[in-house]
Amino acid sequence: MAYKDLQEFIQVLESEGELKRISVEVDPELEITEITDRVSKNYGPALLFEKVKGSDMPVLINAFGSEKRMALSLQVDKLDDLATEIMGLLEIADSVPQSLLDKVKVLPKLAQLSSFLPRMVKSGACQEVVDLNPSLDKIPVLKCWPEDAGRFITLPQVYTKDPESGKRNVGMYRLQVFDGQSTGMHWHTHHDGAENYRKNCQRGQATEVAVALGGDPAITYAGTAPLPKDIDELIFAGFIRKKPVELVKCKTVNLEVPADAEIVIEGYVDPYERRIEGPFGDHTGYYSLADEYPVFHVKCITHKKNAVYPTTIVGKPPQEDCYMALATERIFLPLLKLQLPEVVDMHLPMEGVFHNCVLVAIKKSFPGHARKIMSSLWGMGQMMFAKFIIVVDEDVNVQNVSEVMWKVFNNVDPRRDTMIVEGPLDVLDHSAPLPLIGSKMGIDATKKWMSEGHSREWPKDIVMSPEIKEMVSRRWSEYGFE
């Protein structure tokens, strides 16, 4: 059963013992961040700040900040459950039904797919209050870190349309509040929202934008998912929640937004105007540098009468964005395996903050196989940003970073087993000599074959015999252990 809105999710978090309410007044400038950072570093609960200085709206934060809460937000027992469902859908495309009976068997899955399409409704709770003389100052937007350039909206669903095809895009791009009626629009050049903006600029026209905050958490997550360009994020959200997303027409722009969002900010981005945005304490654990970005002008703000402001902080891991990345890792693994069936498992360790490090276990079949995997991954969507790709054999548990590092430190000859290439990097990578481009390293930590230039016998791992392990397990309590 899909969540109706964010507030229903809050109720579930509370019933599961995953939410702490804070009733004393707190300041959205730095204080909420310091509290949340301490809680997240100790793997604590979601936080609902009920009294926030300068605003009537409560603030929800750290709602995605554990593997359990991430699974709760997507209404699954384990994140891998969604991957299993995706595999079932992929079988439709992979196995075209031949007989009439096969076609009949596929019909329920096709009907299920069609039920994920978003649908329009006449009215929504997100428009209970309509403010045509809006001020962002009424929203308790956080200033997170001391050297941030100001207050930043950090958990938005940013809605735009392709001016050529009319296709919707939902992305998550931070918004620095400049004043009550304008923000920066931090569109990274590689993202689809930025492409829609560039197409509008070529026409000399403004880009209409709607920013939704809240709604079913599946919608928020869908805005972060690395979907292929032509896949509607709201269809993906419908697939996750097993129910179509209900949309209402915006009041001042030609866009649709989730009817049960908490807050909606409507406006436009001018094709010519740019302004310095940043610095901002980012998920890398460093301040991203100030740079010129487009400006978003606010025309209207609508919200629920009892709206809750959802937000997040980013910084040195672990933070809740690490668990959103974990969801992406598990959910999209089947799509990776579809293209690279030799991949056994993949892990994006939180120390790599999404894109800096990818650990991959493969079933090695031929000389140079690890290098083939590295090159393939760098050619796949947002994997192009991976600064380090480490490939290990199929028997290595890539979820155990220590085990992977043991293989790297012991299996790698640096000259033979590393590959350095030049290519695009994420704009947040401060180590690159130039913005957006630099070097990336692949490390082959698999066992080496003689056909790969290893002239000596490869040693065996030390492993105890199964009979002795079973016997010791059976007698464990006799030794005085619990």
Protein described:
By secondary structure, the chain is of the alpha+beta class. The chain folds into two domains: 305 residues, Electron Transport, Fmn-binding Protein, Chain A (Pnp Oxidase, Chain A), CATH 2.30.110.10; 113 residues, UbiD C-terminal domain-like (3-Layer(aba) Sandwich), CATH 3.40.1670.10. Helices cover 29% and strands 26% of the residues. It contains 14 helices and 23 strands. Strands 5, 6, 7, 8, 9, 10, 11, 14 and 17 form a nine-stranded antiparallel beta sheet that branches. Strand 2 and strand 3 form a beta hairpin. The two termini are 42 Å apart.
CATH topology annotation of the largest domain: Pnp Oxidase, Chain A
Name of the CATH superfamily of the largest domain: Electron Transport, Fmn-binding Protein, Chain A
User: How many helix segments?
Assistant: 14
Radius of gyration: 24 Å
Number of strands: 23
Low-confidence stretches: 92-98, 103-107
Mean pLDDT: 92
| Molecular shape | globular
**Count of discrete structural domains:** 2
| DSSP strand content | 25-35%
Pfam families: UbiD, UbiD_C, UbiD_N
Family: Belongs to the UbiD family.
Domain 3-octaprenyl-4-hydroxybenzoate carboxy-lyase-like N-terminal: 10-83
GO molecular function, one term: 4-hydroxybenzoate decarboxylase activity
